[in-house]
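A quick aside before the break. I want you to see a complete sequence-to-structure record at least once, exactly as it would be stored in a machine-readable document. Don't worry about memorizing anything.
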Amino acid sequence: MTPKQIEIVQASFDKVAPIAEAAAGLFYARLFELDPQLKPLFKGDMKRQGMMLMSMIATAVRGLSNTEALIPMVKNLGRRHVGYGVKDSHYAVVGQALIETLEKGLGKDFDAATREAWLGAYSLLSSVMKSGAAEMQVVARAA
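That is the input. The structure line, written in tokens, reads:
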């Protein structure tokens, strides 16, 4: 990602943060619409889950300015998601739900440059999470 794309992602997320609860609701509604089979992976209070999601996204978005510190955290997140039943194939639908949620939440502020920046951010973050998940699976097979 370029510094300009990082700036775009951070600035656009600043606009989403005040509506975090509604954005999380939109995200999960779209995610389950796109792939209803994912719903059983989410247990417990969905409002709490949504706030945890938004907090994690906020941390990742802030961390884009310092990927050396961000990457180990995101890799660990990928490792943890293996235990939740997340598979590599789930990342595409999550990305689609995220982009569509941002588009809906930001309206006219979600222009082509913002879309491109978020696609880059999600590509980076999801590839690092999948890398962490793959490491976890290798360890599990070796045990």
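Two observations worth writing down. Residues 3-142 form a domain with the Globin-like fold (CATH 1.10.490.10). DSSP finds six helices and no strands in the chain. We'll return to this after the break.
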